[in-house]
Structure formats: C-alpha cells, structure tokens
Description:
Number of helices of chain B: 8
Number of domains of chain B: 1
Helix content of chain B: over 70%
Distance between the termini of chain B: 35 Å
Strand order of the largest sheet of chain A: 4-3-2-1-5-6-7-8
Largest sheet of chain A: 8 strands, antiparallel
Helix content of chain A: 40-55%
Oligomer: heterodimer
Strand order of the largest sheet of chain B: 1-2
Largest interface: A-B, 21 and 19 residues
Number of strands of chain B: 2
Shape of chain A: globular
Amino acid sequence: MKNILTIIFRLTVACLLAGLVMGAAFILTDKAKKHNLHVNEQKVMFSLLGYSAKKPAPETVVLHEVYRYIVSEGESLSMGYLLPLQDGSFSFVTIDLAGAFVAQNPVSIPAEKITEEGERSQAIAASIGTGKTIRYADQTIVVTNAGKRTAYLLPGKFPGFKTFITTILALDRDFSILGLEIMEHEEDPGLGGEIVQDYFKNQFKGKPLETIKKLEVMKTPLPEEYLMVLEASRRERLDAEEVARIQEQYKDSDIYALTGATISSTSVTNGVKAMVKKFAYRLEILDRVLAEQHIAVPF
Amino acid sequence: MATDKTSFQLVVNGILNENPIFRLVLSMCPAVGISTTVMNGFMLGIAVLFVQVFSSCTIALFKNFIHPRIRIPTYTLTIATWVTVIDMVLAAYLPEAYAKMGIFVKLIVAFAIITMRLEMFASKESVNASFWDGIGMGLGFMFGMMALGFVRELLGLGTILGYDVLGFKPLLFFVLPFAGFFCVGLMMAFFNYIEIVYKRAKRA
C-alpha cells in the first residue's frame, strides 16, 4: 500500500514538474511564434505580389483587410463584412443572401486589435445588437497602390488528401491568378507533398477567371518546355520572349496532375477553383452595395 | 558506482567505442529513414544532441527521487518534455532552422538511444558525467548519421550537401529506406575492420 502511494506521489510530482516546464516554455515562446507566423505570412503575401527584399514594395502599396462573417438571426442567414473606412474607423456591413443591403453598424475597435479573432468578434457582436450570432468565415486582403486596386489576396483552406491544405492565393483586378502559395499541408512526402513544388503550383499562375471556372486535372505528362518555364531555376536559361510564348500557349490548359497524387492535385485544383469563383461572385455584390449606400472605403 | 572516466574519455566513448549506430545499433528506424543526405543527418544529429544532454542531466539530477518501478514512464516524460520545449523554442526564435528541423525534432520522443542512455548511464552517475556522456552520445549519433548520409547521398544522388559532385546518379536505390539497412551493415563491417587492423598494429 505504501508503495502505491509513493509511486502515485512521485509520478504526480514528475508530471507537475513537466507541466510547469512546458507551460513556462509555452508562455515565453508563444508570442514570438505567432509573430513569426505573421511575419512569414506577410513575406509570402508580398512575394506573391511580386515584391521581394531586393525589390521592396513602394510606400503607396497598402493592404486592406476585409473579414467576412456569417450572421444568423433565428432561421435567416446573411453575410457580414467588417470593412475599414476612409476615416480610419471600422464598419460592419450586413448583406442578405439575395444580395440586398441590410444594415451598417459602426464597430469600435482599435486598429491594432483588428487582427485578433476574439477581440474582433466581441466588438462586432457588441455593435450589431442582441439576437444575432456571428461566425467567422474568411478574410480577404484588398491591395491598393496609390488608392487604386491592384490585387486581392485570399488566405484560404480546403480539404486535401489527408487533412486541410492552407494556402494564400493572389488575384489581380480581373481575378486572374497572380500566384499560389501553400502554407501548411500534411500530404504524403514525395507524392502529394509535391504540391509545394514550383512545377505544380506555378501552373495556376496567369490563368484567367473564365479558365478557372472550368479548370480540371488531366493525367498526361507535363511537357518538357512547360516544365522549363514553371521551374524558376530553369526559366532563367530561356529568353524572355520564349517564356512569354510558352506561358501564353499553356494559359488556358488544365492542370497537369502530380504522378501518384491525383487526389492531392484534384483537391488543390478544386479548392482554388471554388475560392476564386466564390470570391468573384461575393466581391461583385459587395462592391454594388458599397456604391449604392455610399460607404466610403479606402479601396 | 561512479564512472572513473574523464569527461574527454566519455565523449570519445560515445563517438567511437559505443557509437549509437555502429556499435549499440540503437534507433535504427530514424537512422535508416532519415539518413538519406548529409544535411538530414546533421539536422537530426543536432536535435538528438540537445535532447540527450538535457534529458541525461535532468535524470541524473533527480535520480534519487525517481521510483525504480516507474522509471521508464518518468524517462519518457522527461524526453517528451524536453522535445516539446526545444520544439517551441526553435519555432519561436529560429523560424528558418525550424522550417527544416521541425519534423525531425518531433520524431525524437520515441528514440531508443536516449531512453537507453538514461537507463544505463544517467540514472547511476553524477550530473557532470551524464552531461559529458550525453554530449558524446549526441555527437556519436550525429557522426553515424552524417557518415551514413554521406555514403547514401553520394551513391544515391551523386551529390554532397546538395552540390552535384559526380554529375550522375550511380545507384538511386541507396536513398530508398531499405538500402539504409545495407548501408548500416556495410559501414559497420568497415568500422569493425578498421578496429581489427588498428588493434593488430598496436599489438605488433
């Protein structure tokens, strides 16, 4: 009996100590980790827009974050957009599913707290009044250069072969794809994991909206000349004219599937397709409502 | 039962006489799975070195408190704690290294070499001796992994540290997991042979 008690006591103390050490490490490192993730995300976004450390984005380029929520009141559902306004404050605009304007509520939240999910939801809930519940859906970043819209960045996530694939997609003003970056995935290394490779993800680059709407995956080998253009290291060996010609030739083609990873290839293709289609549809409605209601947004 | 070896002898012991891979033949799964390139071997080696040193010191420090009947769960808990802490610290302060090493660090929880070293050495010896033994074992593991990685990368991919040195791929199957076993066996024979030659020369 005494032994049982000693074992329980000592193992408990060991667990408590381990918990303390891990908890302390978590508290000390969590902030830096989140900061790193944020910095990395920003870096990826700018690189998708074509800026890098060598070619930094000019001061006139501004990223405006728009958060989309699903607002439910009893049985009825509507969309809510948290928008920045020109005077620096924030506003929550609700639009019903048919595309008609419902309400506009000012949201009081300091600008530096806007990226924090919890604080943001609380501020919105306080502004729209009782009886309504909100659920966070996704985030869109509208990029402007000197006040003019130049691109959209869509962080998104869709199911892959095993679990979710997290991506950031960059679109230009006409919804053609500027670039695709895979942030997180758990596809099989060497098979589905190849979705992060240039020769797969760069296939999406330059595809216009009309092509994306009917984009499919095809199981034919990737032509050698196209491969040369897709891989950054090999592209340098070709001259610019040749690159442009090949890019134009394959602009409207379907996506060449990865060998041994048809499901991962299809997931990414369908995920991108759905993201672009839905975004183009929603943005059109949002833009129309903003114009009708004379809501002054900085983008 | 304190060891009478000096710290230098403990380190050398880990690298040569009791090399985790070629002598103790422990942690073969990761050794065979990961040692496809020199860089992979180095990354895993560094990660093991840290976890081994921290765990050995912890166990040596608390050896009188750990109940002998539940020592294995306590070792596992210790290793898992240090792996988690190192994982968090790397993710927070060295994000670039973490992007490459993260996957290796998480593997270490189940490594036989670390548990075995805690059982055989740290639970009986002083903190100081355990520290040097941990360094020796970590370096020995790193040496073994890098030696394996060197042979497999050169023969399988024709490169060293990613640089093309041969210009062609002699035996691609060397980078596949099963070839790891061939490689370990052949290199073990090679090191044994060197030892025999060395001892013979010493005697003569």
